[in-house]
Amino acid sequence: MRSFITPVGEEYPFGGPGKFILGTVQAMAEQLRQEYANTVDLIYIDPPFGTGDGFSVKLPGVREKVKIPAYSDSMDTASYLEMMCGVLTLCHDLLKDTGSVYVHIDYRMCARIRLMLDEIFGESCFQNEIIWAYKSGGRSVRHYSRKHDNILFYRKSAKAYFDISAVGVPRGPMKRNNMKRTVDENGKLCFSIRSGGKTYTYYEDTPVYPSDVWADIEHMHQRDPERTGYATQKPEALLRRIISASCPEGGLVADLFGGSGTTAAVAAKLNRRFLTIDASPASLGIVRKRLLSAGCDVSLIKQSSALALSYPALPEGEFDTDFTFSRDAFGAYVQLDSFRSKFGLSFMAFGTVGSDGVFRPAEYTLFPTVGSRLSDSACKADTVQLCDNAGGMRFYRG
Ligand SMILES: C[S@@+](CC[C@H](N)C(=O)[O-])C[C@H]1O[C@@H](n2cnc3c(N)ncnc32)[C@H](O)[C@@H]1O
C-alpha cells in the first residue's frame, strides 16, 4: 500500500501544553521570529558539541546491529560557529526582557561560545558559567579526566526573572564545615556557627541554594527509567533546576535542539508551556512517544495540555505495510495485517486530516504489532498513520 496523503502536523488533546517543530533552527529562524519574538521566558539549548561523531538511538528489543540514526555532529569549526552565531542571535530576539538563556556546551566550544554570548547579550548580562560535574564515563591517563559540561547562563536584561528559592534543597542532618551540631530550646537538631560576632543557626530543613557547581546531578545510568534510547539525552533533574529557577509558572520555555524532549517533558510536568525544535526525525518520534506517555498520566487532572507536532516536510520511513479498514454502526476500524520495517514500528494512529492539513488521531497505540486494531466510535476516522523507530512515517487513507 503506498503513502497517500502528506499532513503538515499532528494534534493531541494532551501531552503538552506545547509544540514540537521538525526542522533546522536555521530554516525555522524567520518563522520563529515572526511568531515568537519577545515572548519566550527561558531558552535552554544543548546543541551538538563539535565532537565530529554520529549519534544513534538504542532501543530495547531492536536488534543491536540495526543502527537507528539520530543525528550527526560533523560540521567543520567555521560552519559550526557561523550556525551558533545565528542561533544565539535568534535566542536574543525570541526572549522577553525578563528572559534568560542557558547554553549547554563542553570544553570544545565553551570559550568561543562565551565570547559570542558576550557580543550578542552584552558582558553585563553574563550570569554564571555553571559547571555540571559528573562521574560517569571512562578515565584518561593522558590528561585529567574531563568530567564536566559547561552551561553558560545569560539574562536578556537586568529585569530577568530568577527565583533561587524554587531550587533550594534541604540542608539535611549532615554536619558541614566547622559548624557546631546542637539541639535548640525546642529539642530540634540544628547547626550553628559564629562569624563577625554573630551566631548563625541552620536547621535540617533550612534550604541550601545551588552554587554554580552542580555535582549533585548524575548522568542517567544504563537502566535509568528516564532513558528514551536517544543518545546525548540529559537528565530531567538538570532541566528541573533550570526551569524552576528561570521560568515563572505558565511561562514559555523553548529548546531549539530538543533531542529526546527532556526540556519539553519537564516543562509540562512543572506547568510551563514549551516550544521544541529539532532537525532529526528520530527526535520527533521519541518526543511524540515520551510526551504522550507522560500526558496519559496527567490527562485526567490537566485540562488544557494540547500537544502539536509540526513537520513542514514529511520524513518518509522505509517500510511496507498492509491494513484492513472496516466500518459498522458502532465505529470505524483499522487493523494492521502485516509490516516489513528496517527500524521497527513505534507508533500507529487512526484519525482524520482536517482542512488545515493537521492529522487528529481518535485512537493510537505506542507499540503496534501485527493484529493491532484501532477504532473511532464517532465513525469519522479514515486515515491511518504508521511510524518507525527512526521517525519515518506514512499516512494511508482507507
Ligand atoms: C545534544 S542533542 C540534544 C539532547 C537533548 N538535550 C536531550 O536531553 O535529549 C542535540 C540535538 O540537536 C539536533 N540538531 C543538530 N543540528 C540542528 C539544527 N541545525 N537545528 C535543529 N536541531 C539540530 C540534533 O538532532 C540533536 O537531537
Describe the SSE topology.
Blueprint: E1 9-12, E2 18-22, H1 25-36, E3 40-45, E4 54-57, E5 68-72, H2 77-94, E6 95-105, H3 110-121, E7 126-133, E8 148-155, E9 169-170, E10 180-183, E11 189-195, E12 198-203, E13 207-208, E14 213-214, H4 236-246, E15 252-255, H5 262-269, E16 273-278, H6 281-298, E17 307-310, E18 319-328, E19 331-341, E20 345-353, E21 358-365, E22 373-376, E23 383-388, E24 393-397
Parallel strand pairs: 1-21, 2-16, 2-17, 3-6, 3-15, 7-14, 15-16
Antiparallel strand pairs: 1-17, 4-5, 6-8, 7-8, 9-13, 10-11, 11-12, 18-19, 19-22, 20-21, 20-23, 23-24
Helix pairs in contact: 1-2, 2-3, 4-5
| CATH architecture label name of the largest domain | 3-Layer(aba) Sandwich
Separate helix tally: 6
Q: Which fold name is given in CATH as the topology of the largest domain?
A: Rossmann fold
Strand content: 35-45%
Flag low-confidence runs. Answer: 297-301
What do the pLDDT scores average to?
92
Give me the side-by-side strand order of the main sheet.
14-7-8-6-3-15-16-2-17-1-21-20-23-24
Describe this structure in words.
With 398 residues, the chain is of the alpha/beta class. It folds into 3 domains: 9-164 and 213-310, Rossmann fold; 169-207, no CATH class; 319-390. Helix content is 20%, strand content 35%. Strands 14-7-8-6-3-15-16-2-17-1-21-20-23-24 form a 14-stranded mixed beta sheet, sandwiched between helices. A 3-stranded antiparallel beta sheet has the order 10-11-12, with no helix packed on it. A hairpin with a 2-residue loop joins strand 18 (319-328) and strand 19 (331-341). The chain is globular. The chain starts with 8 loop residues before the first strand and ends with a strand. The protein binds S-adenosylmethionine.
